[in-house]
Amino acid sequence: MSVRLRKWKSKEGKVQEAWWVDVKFQHPDGRVERVRKASPVNTRRGAEQYERELRQALLGGSYNRREAEPEVPTVRNFTECFLTYSSNNNKASTLAAKRQLLDSHLLPAFGNLRLDRVGPADIETFKAQKRKEGLAPKTINNALTVLRTLFAVAAEQEVLPHVPRVKLLKVERPEFDFLTFEEAERLVAAAPPEWRTMIQVALHTGLRRGELIALQWDAVDLVAGRLLVKRNVWRGHFGTPKGGRSREVPLNAVALQALKAHRHLRGAFVFCDATGAYLKNDTCRNAILRASKRAGLRPMGWHTLRHSFASHLVARGVPLKAVQELLGHATIEMTMRYAHLSPDVKKDAVRALEGHTGGT
Fold first, then answer.
1. Which PANTHER family does the UniProt record give (predicted)?
2. What is the pTM for the complete model shown?
């Protein structure tokens, strides 16, 4: 009999029962398969229907056949999906950096591995190899961050069941260069007239090079004495500033006077060439190098002027939170590297306990 009622006693002594199906089926190759299962519908009629379904499944060859799981792609095969995602969600500069790290480091090491086969040992081997090649720990971490993001995107798109752990190298906080107040004055004095205003504005607003190049007169209010940082340019690609947010920067007397004297009618860009076109990166890089050489200073880039702006503020006692907002840092941790320049931060900290001699 293919359908029967089974009865048994539970540990508590209660009688329990269930309808079971017992089916023997002979396949065309002579193999006999026996299936014994409890009916999902616990009645005779439900069990009989379940028996018919089982026999039909056995006859059609669909019983106990699992759908083939989609094969997890290799890192190389998933790269295009990852870059498509990045192009939709990242700036052009970030996308270019990811491409470079993938092509130069990640794909040669992991490209032929399936996403779910990249394990901790593979990642540690990658670190050791790159350190042996002399790659800076910061660059290695940049590559590992891209790999971790690639895993996260694969998991989000349900290509990977989970995000593997990617442990970064411990890296000391890098030193940054900044000008003393006296060095900043020497740089401005030695700069050619056509570059002096741009250097002064950089020293007194902390704008990045791409933000300076993309700055237009519609974002400068010479009456109210402020400017709005709402554009950035990188290799000809105009977009929002780093972090994707605009910020307002007040103009002090030095920057305001310099911009008023610099006002021109050559076009929309505040700093431009003779035709009114925006300045190119190489042109700006060479200009600051020449100015620093004329001033008798070490070679530097525009980011040194941004560091100088922040350092001078902290040295004059400006709160770090205000410095963070002026620089457009996403987190206070990025601004904390300037904290040691504050002359009174530790002194003010211990003074907070003065006057509290009684009580608990």
1. PHAGE INTEGRASE-RELATED, PROPHAGE INTEGRASE INTD-RELATED
2. 0.67
